[in-house]
């Protein structure tokens, strides 16, 4: 059995994550990690608050406070929020911690010693009013590739291209709006061009990479890699360790990418098993998988692998990179400034986490941009989660409780229809596991829904409520089949709706399949005669007037979270 390091892109700590962030990284990684644990795999799940760089420094400067005051408060708030979403990290870390800072400095010095970091002078935009160099998000302008007028100095949010501040058309300072001048400064550059052949070979030979990641990255690398600046003229970040680099910090993206490694290191140090770190991150058989949005593909499929290769330390390159397309909010991109979208804390004021977890996995944009709409959310909760899954489970449990003295009935001779059902159960089980294994989480939920609908079809056709009048034995066999069927169904659903599956196990009066249990669930049948508890509905429908009242529902949710969010 191998080891897995499951990684979710580090959310930037200047804001609460929105639904697109949740499905693009944090929730998707959690569902996959829970699936691995259910299989009994040796896995860790890491991410953390991305705290450094110019965006935080910009916000702190505007508010007249120290950056760490902001990041401390936001990290604490987001960490609690992640727990409330039932997301279970092995270590949810932060970039402003000693383990990470020291690791980053040691790592980039290794690149320097290996000849992949060089010092160069360059002309960079400088604001004569604020008297600072305008790196990254200190500067905005028009993207030279797509014409988007609010491109940042490091990347265009519209087309995803990585940029440098000097490429922007009509640039201006984000603080005062003035036009920059250009001044000479020194920076340290990562010579990615030296790694082009090795990187291209890895991209072409890694069959686990999804086509959207592989094709995009190969085309990018084939155009020719350029040296990229690894330092910035900002004060908030990891101090650059290179000789003569006093006053410089490491570019936030290089810093944050290394958090996947340092978070594992920090975890094992916390539990007093520091020696285990290298057994995970230096083992060639370790499988690393990254859950990201498509705008982060260049960093995870090009820059990060280049860094790992250049270290010559034997770190395994990414095994899988699961990059979602965009989740749009009613046909528009999420926007805090324009009030477009739903944020993770607002969502939990509307419904419990499991409802959101299921709905977002059902909407997961695995092949193309997907639109979140309230009408689709309503349909998924009421039709799929409640009617297809919840009603099936409740019908089986309540029939058992009322008609078999609250006990699991006996199974007698199987009919042809029984055998077909059990064969279908095994097929759905195998198909769902295959989809989960390939990080196709929406596809896994498709298979679970197909399984639920097949169970409803069997229950309706076999009609135990009629059979029990003629043959209690036959009705018992139908219900015994269905109790085992819904047990497998709710176990397959556990990575997506953990609390709801636990509620089901509680009614069934079983512990549920914990680590490694998924491999045994098909073979391990429920014990006849075992008592169950009085059933309660696992899921509830949204009220008929939900869509009519959604504006006021959102408004109330925003009022509530406004009282809870950190204030500066």
UniProtKB/TrEMBL annotation:
Its main location: cytoplasm. Its EC number is 6.1.1.10. A motif ('KMSKS' region) lies at residues 333-337. Residues 408-546 form the Methionyl-tRNA synthetase anticodon-binding domain. Its cofactor is Zn(2+). It is an enzyme of class 6 (ligase). GO terms for cellular component: aminoacyl-tRNA synthetase multienzyme complex; cytosol. It comes from the Archaea. InterPro entries: aa-tRNA-synth_I_CS, Anticodon_Met, Met-tRNA_ligase_1, Met-tRNA_synth, Methionyl/Leucyl_tRNA_Synth, MetRS_core, MetRS_Zn, Rossmann-like_a/b/a_fold. A motif ('HIGH' region) lies at residues 11-21. Keywords: Aminoacyl-tRNA synthetase, ATP-binding, Cytoplasm, Ligase, Metal-binding, Nucleotide-binding, Protein biosynthesis, Zinc. It catalyses: tRNA(Met) + L-methionine + ATP = L-methionyl-tRNA(Met) + AMP + diphosphate. GO terms for molecular function: ATP binding; metal ion binding; methionine-tRNA ligase activity. Residues 4-397 form the Methionyl/Leucyl tRNA synthetase domain. Belongs to the class-I aminoacyl-tRNA synthetase family. MetG type 1 subfamily. This is Methionine--tRNA ligase. It comes from Fervidicoccus fontis (strain DSM 19380 / JCM 18336 / VKM B-2539 / Kam940). The gene is metG.
């Amino acid at each position: 059995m191998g080891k897995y390091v499951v990684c979710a892109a580090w959310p930037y700590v200047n804001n609460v994550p929105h639904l697109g962030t949740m499905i693009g990284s944090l929730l998707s990684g959690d569902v996959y990690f829970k699936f691995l644990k259910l299989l009994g795999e040796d896995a860790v799940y890491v991410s953390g608050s991305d705290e450094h760089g110019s965006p935080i420094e910009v916000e702190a400067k505007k508010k007249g406070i120290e950056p760490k005051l902001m990041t401390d408060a936001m990290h604490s708030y987001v960490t609690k929020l992640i727990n409330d979403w039932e997301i279970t990290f092995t270590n949810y870390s932060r970039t402003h911690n000693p383990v990470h800072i020291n690791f980053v400095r040691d790592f980039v010095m290794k690149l320097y010693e290996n000849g992949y970091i060089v010092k160069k002078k360059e002309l960079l935009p400088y604001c004569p009013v604020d008297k600072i160099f305008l790196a990254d998000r200190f500067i905005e302008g028009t993207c030279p590739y797509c014409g988007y007028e609010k491109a940042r100095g490091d990347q265009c949010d519209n087309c995803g291209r990585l940029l440098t501040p000097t490429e922007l058309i009509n640039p201006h300072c984000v603080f005062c709006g003035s036009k920059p001048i250009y001044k000479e400064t020194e920076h340290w550059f990562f010579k990615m061009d030296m790694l082009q052949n090795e990187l291209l070979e890895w991209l072409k030979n890694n069959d686990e990479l999804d086509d959207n990641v592989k094709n995009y990255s190969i085309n990018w690398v084939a155009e020719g890699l350029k040296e990229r600046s690894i330092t910035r003229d900002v004060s908030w970040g990891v101090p650059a360790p290179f000789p003569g680099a006093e006053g410089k910090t490491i570019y936030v993206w290089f810093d944050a990418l290394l958090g996947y490694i340092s978070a594992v290191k920090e975890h094992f140090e916390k539990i007093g098993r520091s020696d285990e770190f290298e057994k995970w991150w230096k083992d060639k058989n370790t499988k690393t998988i990254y859950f990201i949005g498509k705008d982060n593909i260049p960093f995870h499929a090009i820059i990060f692998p280049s860094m790992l290769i250049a270290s010559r330390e034997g770190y395994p390159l990414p095994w899988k990179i699961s990059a979602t397309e965009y989740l749009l909010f009613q046909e528009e991109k999420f926007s805090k400034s324009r009030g477009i979208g739903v944020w993770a804390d607002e969502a939990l004021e509307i419904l419990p986490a499991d409802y959101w977890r299921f709905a977002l996995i059902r909407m997961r944009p695995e092949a193309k941009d997907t639109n979140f709409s309230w009408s689709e959310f309503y349909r998924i909760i009421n039709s799929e989660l409640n009617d297809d899954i919840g009603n099936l489970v409740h019908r089986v449990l309540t029939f058992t409780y009322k008609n078999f003295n609250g006990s699991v009935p006996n199974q007698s001779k199987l009919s042809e229809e029984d055998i077909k059902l059990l064969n279908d159960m095994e097929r759905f089980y195998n198909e769902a596991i295959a989809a989960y294994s390939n990080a196709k989480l929406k596809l896994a939920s498709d298979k679970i829904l197909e399984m639920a609908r097949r169970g409803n079809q069997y229950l309706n056709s076999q009609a135990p409520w009629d059979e029990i009048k003629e043959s209690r034995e036959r009705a018992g066999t139908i219900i015994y089949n269905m109790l085992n069927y819904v047990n497998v169904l709710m176990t397959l659903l556990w990575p997506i709706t953990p609390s709801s599956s636990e509620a089901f196990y509680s009614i069934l009066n079983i512990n549920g399949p914990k680590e490694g249990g998924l491999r045994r669930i098909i073979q391990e049948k429920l014990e006849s005669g075992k008592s169950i508890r009085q059933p309660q509905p696992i899921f509830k429908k949204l009220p008929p007037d939900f869509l009519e009242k959604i504006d006021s529902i959102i408004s109330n949710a925003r009022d509530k979270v406004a009282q809870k969010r950190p204030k500066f």
